[in-house]
Amino acid sequence: TASTWAARALMARRKAVVGRHSPMFYDEPLHVTSGQGVWLRGTDGIDYLDAYNNVPHVGHCNPVVVRAIADQAALLNVHTRYLHEPVVEYAEALLATFDPRLDKVLFTNSGSESNELALRIARQHTGNTGIVVTDFSYHGNTTSLAELTTGLRVKERLGPHVRALRTPDLDADERPVEDVLDEALDQVAAALASLKAAGHGVSAFLFDPLFSTEGLLRTPPGYVEAVATMIRAAGGLVIADEVQSGLGRSGSRFWGHELYDIAPDLVTLGKPLGNGHPVGGVVTTTELLEEFGTDNLYFNTFAGNPVSAAAGLAVLREMADRELQRNAWDVGARARELLEKLVEHRPHVKALRGKGLFFGLEFVDGNGQPGTAQAKWVVENMRRRGVLISRIGPHDNVLKIRPPMIFEPEHVDLLVERLTTSLDDLETTEAHEHAASPASATGNGRKARVNSPLRTGLFIDGKWRSNSKKFDVMNPADGSLAARVSAGG
Ligand code: PMP
């Protein structure tokens, strides 16, 4: 079609200026022109259902966020060495969502910067250089993070100060849970011993509470707690990388680390914070920040600038106003129910993983081996059916479904309907070059936004709990009360 040729021409221009290695999704890259809510419009005229993106956390081009960014940009944007109220307001509102122990934030512009800074703080505090991560994880693109990346293609070898743990996964291991746990903790002990023997010691355990890049693994109960205890006993700190798991994604908790009985020393943030505007941060304790700040001047030109702060505040406001953590819980439950049926009835779908509005569907081939080709086929086929998803895991055989938090039941139904048809096709043909005729997405399913009453308290495992610490988020434009955000504790 004309739009396909136009996309190819643009691809050729892109390749000429950025080279051929900047990754893009799909065999034929998707050429999009605009976004709205859970929809991305292609140049082919199709509205694609976005069941993949967590950066537009509160929806593509969310009007509240867009307005906040535009208003602030029209008023003032400047680096961070002047006093400006919305910046402080955002820090207060963000911290109010954490346990009161975690009462300081340093802003950054990305997840990579956040992890880089957290590791620096841990190294300074502990005097050690060793880092423990999980196998097939990803934490960012800087020099030192490339040295601990095991989950994406990078040429750097693991740093000599890095040890990667094979994360236990109850969906893949049929042994008794205690055996799985024992073996996993033996690995932690071995990693710590080898870091000690090599003279590195341990500065930190850096992990993603949902083990997202790893393929949304289901660890034995008590595993994360035990690792944290062992790391601490060896003198290290615990860093929760919430770049993917944060801001209510799991449905049952606002932050991913709250799924476990641990108290992380540092929490790193990125992706969804600014709904696409680059906002990240490191949340930590007063003690750690004092210690780090005494010896180090941390200055970051753009991080937490007034426009970023306005974007971040607007995202928190939308989260509270529209009860989006609760939405992840409710809509996620519906999706889980329907996706479970695929596990029961479809030969290629082995397991459903994930929490809240974040799912992994593990694929196997006809011999029970990782179904990498089948998963890829379905991702491509779903795109032709107007639905965007992707893949994760060491074998890239786990479908990654992680839509914006405003996903509604009707979007779940559309997603599952298309997935079902796609699996029908896969089962019938089992051919990778299958040329399914493109189906356009039906309708756009958009609904008028319903204003939910402002709620106070914490939403935990499907219920609101009252909470003593609440925080008012003021509208930067006119100072009116925009939302009331609840604190942990
Ligand atoms: N941590 C995790 C868990 C991530 O998924 C990512 C990005 N995929 C990063 C860190 C790096 O974030 P950024 O690309 O914003 O630097």
From TrEMBL:
Species in which this protein is naturally found: Streptomyces xiangluensis
Enzyme Commission identifier(s): 1.2.1.39
Family recorded in the similarity comment: Belongs to the aldehyde dehydrogenase family.
Coiled-coil region list: none
Name by which UniProt lists this protein: Phenylacetaldehyde dehydrogenase StyD
Domain of life from the UniProt record: Bacteria
Region described as Disordered: spans on this chain: 429-448
Entry GO MF terms: phenylacetaldehyde dehydrogenase (NAD+) activity
Keyword Oxidoreductase: yes
The entry's keywords: Oxidoreductase, Pyridoxal phosphate
